User: What shape does this take?
Amino acid sequence: MKKVRLATVWLDGCAGCHMSLLDIDEALIDLAQIADIVYGPLVDIKEFPHDVDVTLVEGAVSSTEDLEKAQVIRERSKLVVAFGDCAVTSNVPSMRNQYGVAAVMKRAYQENATLQPQMPTQGVPALLPVARPLHNVIAVDLHIPGCPPSPEVILNCVSELCAGRMPKITPSFRFG
Ligand code: SF4
Assistant: This one.
């Protein structure tokens, strides 16, 4: 049987959704029987591959780099999943939206700096005017809410998607 090509992506999030994915524990071994992880923070591949079946995207779209990555993901993935509340609603990253980019950058790099306060000019992707949920910038096939979604919800969704079925989502309200 041909394995599902599964990717996971980390945009503007805290990695908590990926940690919750790892919390499916021994079910990861079962998952490895039906899916190959072809891209993500868990594997050492730099460029997003072609012909991906399912991509889980954690995090909001907050920078020009996030935006370009989201567009490449959409072009190269059959199914794109907004994975967790930051991708679904923009959640925590959107807390900066009310202040604006200039004020946030000034606070981070000048007012709170104890050594050499200065604005970065290289190596830091430009922030978008606001942090946006994934469906604001690309078409999304499935939303998995939760901060983070519980391991049980993630396992059910990934298993169903790998089996070619669209899962029914029951939101998880786990905190902490
Ligand atoms: S949804 Fe919650 S756990 Fe997931 S990246 Fe955002 S803040 Fe972290």
Notes: The radius of gyration is 17 Å. Residues 64-76 form the longest helix (13 residues). The first strand starts at residue 4 and ends at 10. The mean pLDDT is 94.
